[in-house]
Amino acid sequence: MSALRLASPTARNFRTLAPSLRPARARLTDAAMDGKPLATLDYSQMIVAVARQRDRAAFGALFDHFAPRIKAYLLRAGADEGLADELAQEALLAVWRKAETFDAARATAATWIFTIARNLRTDRFRKEWRDVPVGDDLPDAIDEAAAPDESLSEAERGERVRHALRQLPPEQIKVIELSFFEDQPHAEIAQTLGIPLGTVKSRIRIAMAKLRDLVGDLS
Amino acid sequence: MTIRHHPSDETLAAYAAGTLDLGRRVVVASHLERCAACRRFVRGAEQVGGVMLEDLSPAPMSEHALARTLARIDREHSRQPAKPVANEPGLPACLKPYEMGRWRWVGPGVEMRPILLPESGNVRVFLLKAGPGTRLPQHTHEGSELTSILVGSFHHEGGDFFAGDFEEADGDVEHRPIVGTDMACICLVALEGQLKLSGFIGALLNPFVRL
Prior knowledge:
- The complex is a heterodimer.
- By secondary structure, chain A is mostly helical.
- Chain A contains eleven helices and no strands.
- Chain A folds into two domains: 136 residues, Rna Polymerase Sigma Factor, Chain: A, CATH 1.10.1740.10; 51 residues, Arc Repressor Mutant, subunit A.
- In chain B, the strands form three sheets. In chain B, strands 1, 2, 3, 4, 6, 9 and 11 form a seven-stranded antiparallel β-sheet that branches. A three-stranded antiparallel β-sheet of chain B has the order 8-7-10, with no helix packed on it.
- The longest helix of chain B is centred in the first third of the chain and has 20 residues.
- The two termini of chain B are 34 Å apart.
- The interface between A and B is large, with 79 and 57 residues.
């Protein structure tokens, strides 16, 4: 899928306008040819290009990749078409505004952008809007104790999460997915999946234990 | 100081996923500011969120969405950034964006100060300050109650809680907290539904419960 995206006009522009980032794109292509998932490193470099050069082509490439996914995330969370579209634009606008606070050593591009979309979801979804900076509820300054294991790059970390998620049985993924995307009370999840409430609760407990194992492996 | 009481994994995961309402999110954030272990867990869960975001099948954006966003970026330059509301020293950074009401007396040795969130729904968020040795009324909850201890300590049947600790209670829990005798205790509380109070002080607390 990354190969197709490389052929988009924005990606071509990006390559012309930001020759210094060409090696990154080359790596991305290689990864795509090996059939590996997108190297998040490249999106990280685009965010850095937005931060340092206010690079609009890099921003366009980020927009093309992430805006439709954020929109899908917000649709899953119950937003209507118009709101999801508007908030996805809002999220990318926040990416532009906050690009200089992005630290590739601390988060993958996808994780960072996810937190922006998530904060918009809680701030904005409930209809009221105040002009409050998003993503500021976990100040960077106090995060030194949570510094990631230096031996593991964030891209590798993302890869490990992806791999570990794939190992989970489908019903556990379903529960994690529902709790991540759909803000449903347990009773509704039970109804959606057609299983007893007690089963939902125990599955959530197991899913959370898995999540803790997974996160424990990462830290 | 070691933090002994943490939010449940489920609450932390809901925070990471964005499914907590703003009120509860603020209270959890005040704990995260102090607790490296919970920050690590949340960051791991956010990573899961990042992976899930990547894996979602994209929903096509409306026509000219990128052009419209770039046009907004052009207008950005004239935009004044939001001015943060002045914060009292010692309060968690997560309260900065929000206005607060006044401290008000709610009972002997007990004061509360509402946090004015843009949208709090069924959840109220407030600072609760209780003098040294104060016995808070026995109460149960209609919904959940999240408490982040900012200053001082209290104890009840469920254990001892110090600054940095976090308590999660639901309707089943019946507690009678007693504030530590050395200093006043200040907590940040997200309360869902109504408190059910018993006794004399309970009656005094009712005005704030109906806030």
